[in-house]
Amino acid sequence: MPAEISEMPAVVSTNYGNGNGNNAEKDDFTERIFREAHETVENEPELCSLLKHTVLAPWVQTFEDAVAATVCYRMLLKEPTPTMDGVFCPHALKGIFQKAFRDDQNLEMGQYSIKEAVRKDAQAVIDRDPACETLLEVVLFYKGFSALVVHRVAHQKWVAASKVKRSMTALFLQSQASAIFGLDIHPGACIGAGILLDHGTGIVIGETCHLGDGCTLLHGVTLGGNGKETGDRHPKVGRNVLIGAGASVLGNIQIGDRVKIGAGSIVLRPLPAGATAVGAPAKIIGKTLESNPADTMDESLKNVGHFHQSPSTITLSTVATSTTKSMTSSSNSNSSIAETVDETVAESSSESDDNDDSCVCPYRDYAKFAMKIAKKLPAGTYGITFCQFAKLLESSKCIKHEIVAAFFALDQRSVGYLKKTDMTPDLVTKALMESTALDSQQIAKFLQTVH
Length: 451
Fold this sequence. Notes:
Region (Disordered): 1-25, 325-356
EC number: 2.3.1.30
CATH topology of the largest domain: serine acetyltransferase, domain 1
GO biological process, one term: cysteine biosynthetic process from serine
Structural class: alpha/beta
Keywords: Acyltransferase, Amino-acid biosynthesis, Transferase
CATH class of the largest domain: Mainly Alpha
Helix content: 40-55%
Number of strands: 18
Pathway: Amino-acid biosynthesis; L-cysteine biosynthesis; L-cysteine from L-serine: step 1/2
Radius of gyration: 27 Å
Distance between the termini: 85 Å
CATH superfamily of the largest domain: serine acetyltransferase, domain 1
Strand content: 5-15%
């Protein structure tokens, strides 16, 4: 037995792959995966059989070939043998993957070919997973990566099919990937590039879901519908979003860029760009501090700008007692406005109105914080309070959720009020466009009122 093992590297070095990659266009991914594969054969000859059927198969010449060979091999492992005809012809399956990798016309999210997207996915695993050291292990063993490759191929079949007929091949690929890799991604879902499905187990992504570039999803994440609705019914997730283990995002709701969602959270309402939310139902606890939270992988939510009173507002009681009578009058006026807004924006969760969703509103804690600051802050002393902001939008007929969302977007320092530097025309326009249903004319009118 020892003699037999000692001979295997020599056999491998002379017979595998006709010099894999020698005739291919040289690139870093292709050179790296073949180098790592041959090093593995030399160091761990017991993996020769696996590599012979995957990365070092005779027909494999490029990184994309290596990915296709590996995923197809794993997809048919539950057949009698990977080389015998079963419920799906191995040669036909290989052909489907090769054709998809050659297609530069059908772009992922309108931007990337499957070839480009898969390379970005592999790089995302290497960059973000501290347990990953080689490109080879990503291709051979990472089920989140493999399931995503299968999805990209299935999605191409899905969108190419007639609107009248569903692609049964796409559904077969989905079913096999779910059974083998433990992730359920509908072939209709649109997924960007540079995605990390960490661990992968239990991830569910629905038919009409959109997942932007650069996102990271931990195990057990669900991007699902909210019942028996048909049509467009799944979340629309922006770029560079981090979704923690076991979190659920339900319904056709928008999740902005750079959002962080804590483990185990249940998100039922939209979240604005740059927000950090946690809980069941999820509530916003502050601003995301990183430019790319999906890359930094702050699963413990340490890099969060929590709501806080600034040094100036901490000493408000001292300031208020030293102000003039007119300033005190203004402060009282501000408090009365706050009480009015309190009734319309932060309704009591004890109300029996079936349409009242204040208990699941992600801004519920921030609204209370901003109104607390508004009641303390002497009017005009430090900037625009939430109550004043709501009053300015009164004539535009913005709904309560939109008002809080716009104010939160402008409150970059998370202090509960806005300075003039927070209210530049560009910042206000962006906040109102993203957070409200106001058109350009209404926004221009609001800007005239403010400035």
